[in-house]
Specification:
Blueprint lengths: L1 H17 L8 E3 L5 H8 L7 E4 L6 H8 L2 E13 L5 H28 L8 E10 L6 E4 L8 H18 L11 E12 L21 E9 L2 E9 L8 E3 L2 E5 L2 E5 L4 E4 L5 E3 L1
Parallel strand pairs: 1-2, 8-10
Antiparallel strand pairs: 2-13, 3-6, 4-5, 4-6, 7-8, 9-12, 10-11, 12-13
Length: 275
């Protein structure tokens, strides 16, 4: 189990690093039947804004599908180059080619979503560019800060956004602007927001759970030895309740382990925060 959690933690770090993300800016949600079981282990040593799970953890993927926005994604192969010392005219020439590709993808999105019966006035476009330094083997996708390249400054903004992302993912010293840039692919996402669920919030009550939520003590084999854990019924816990580890919070579809030295706080939506 420990090896599995270490590998999961390494994967978290790898994904965050590859995308230039700082985990302390994000809340981690543990879901599925096994996510809450291992979450304390695979987040150990990592810093998040918060770590939580919920009674519907095992159905979270289905829940996400039911409220996810309508989204179409499009890409188009290109072969554009821009030198580090490109003139204003060269930037505008490349910009015109980018604009034409984005416009083509926008029209395709409008036609397809209209055919699906969507309200076209609600579509939000996000323009993407896959850029690399000249002679690099792989590119990096960046969201464009502008929807059209109408001025040389617009092209500068796009390149600056890409270089900022490149620096976050790699390092400042690995930047190599002198060789210029290649854009071999452009992209577009077309999104229509779907109605989102609203969770009813209740005022927090006592930190001490009702006695009916307790399922007693149990010997549990963990970290190579038997330990006594307090067992709780997840559905019987209420907003404001605090559970100190070592504890196991059980649910018919998932299991939430709270190690010694950690605790769980139940918020007004009946979300369980691991502290």
């Amino acid at each position: 189990m420990k090896l599995l959690e270490l590998r999961a933690r390494d994967s978290l770090q790898t994904v965050a690093s590859a995308r230039g993300l700082d985990t302390s800016d994000y809340v981690l949600m543990a879901y599925g039947g096994a996510g809450p079981l291992h979450v304390a282990g695979y987040t150990e040593g990592l810093t998040f804004k918060g770590i939580l799970t919920f009674p519907f953890a095992a159905a979270f993927s289905a829940f996400g599908c039911s409220i996810a926005d309508y989204l179409h994604r499009y890409t188009k192969s290109m072969h554009l180059s821009l030198s580090a010392t490109a003139s204003a005219e060269a930037k505008l020439e490349v910009g015109q080619a980018i604009n034409a590709a984005w416009e083509e993808m926008e029209q395709t999105a409008l036609e397809e979503m209209k055919g699906e019966g969507k309200e076209l006035g609600k579509i939000e476009f996000q323009h993407l560019a896959m850029i690399r330094y000249a002679a690099q083997l792989t590119d990096l996708e960046v969201q464009s800060p502008v929807s059209r390249i109408n001025t040389p400054e617009d092209m500068d903004h796009l390149i600056e956004s890409w270089e900022t992302l490149y620096e976050k993912i790699n390092s400042r010293v690995s930047k190599y602007s002198e060789v210029g840039y290649q854009i071999l692919e452009l992209g577009l996402t077309a999104r229509i927001e779907k109605v989102k669920a609203r969770f009813q919030e209740r005022a927090p009550g006592s930190e001490t759970p009702d006695s009916s939520a307790s399922k007693g003590l149990r010997q549990v084999y963990r970290n190579g030895q038997w330990q006594e854990a307090h067992i709780w019924e997840m559905d019987a816990l209420k907003p404001g309740n605090v559970i100190e580890g070592f504890a196991i919070i059980e649910h018919p579809a998932t299991t939430f382990v709270v190690p010694s030295g950690r605790r769980v706080e139940v918020d007004g939506r009946n979300f369980f925060w691991l502290r």
